């Protein structure tokens, strides 16, 4: 009896999933391009430049980058973001200062330089471009 129930359940699951696939319910962002082919290079988009910054969608969201970053360099020796956003330069450059949280290490100790956990800015702060969304997005931020 148990064997029969397992067999029927398996057959039902296979039937449901095969019907969904055949109906085109699973779509790829690659379209009809085969997985074995190289992905097509996306069209180059210009960076979105917004004077005064871009409003956040939720309370703890890291600010997005409202300017071009194509000439910025961030590696183990150089972080050009700090040319404008450091404590020493932000007022003269009229740029937001790096947040105080960026100077705290994982143990809660306040540092005199940016924590290595916060040094690579674009891990959290994303540049923006004028582009259509790849998929429908109905998210509405907190106002």
Write the layout of secondary structure elements.
Elements: H1 2-22, H2 82-85, H3 90-93
Report the principal-axis shape: elongated
Give the C-alpha Rg. Answer: 24 Å
The rounded distance between the terminal residues' Cα atoms is: 58 Å
Q: Give me the number of helical elements.
A: 3
Largest sheet: none
At the fourth level of CATH, the homologous superfamily of the domain at 45-131 is Flavocytochrome C3, Chain A
Taken in chain order, the helices and strands follow as: HHH
The class by helix and strand makeup works out as mainly alpha
Note the beta-strand portion: under 5%
Any guess at the CATH architecture of the domain at 45-131? Orthogonal Bundle
CATH class of the domain at 45-131 reads Mainly Alpha
**What is the CATH third-level topology name of the domain at 45-131?**
Flavocytochrome C3, Chain A, domain 2
According to DSSP, the number of beta strands is 0
The share of residues in helices is 10-25%
Task: Explain briefly what this protein structure is.
This protein has helices spanning 2-22, 82-85, 90-93.
């Amino acid at each position: 009896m148990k064997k029969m129930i397992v067999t029927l359940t398996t057959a039902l699951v296979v039937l449901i999933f095969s019907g969904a696939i055949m109906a085109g319910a699973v779509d790829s962002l690659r379209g009809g391009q085969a997985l074995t082919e190289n992905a097509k290079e996306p069209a180059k988009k210009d960076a979105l430049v917004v004077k005064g910054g871009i409003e956040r969608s939720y309370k703890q969201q890291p600010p997005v980058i409202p300017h071009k970053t194509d000439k910025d360099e961030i590696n183990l020796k150089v972080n050009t973001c700090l040319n404008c956003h450091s404590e020493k330069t932000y007022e003269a450059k009229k740029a937001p200062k790096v947040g105080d949280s960026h100077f705290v290490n994982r143990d809660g100790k306040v540092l005199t330089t940016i924590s290595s956990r916060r040094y690579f800015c674009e891990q959290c702060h994303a540049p923006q471009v004028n582009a259509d969304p790849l998929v429908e997005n109905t998210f509405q931020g907190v106002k």
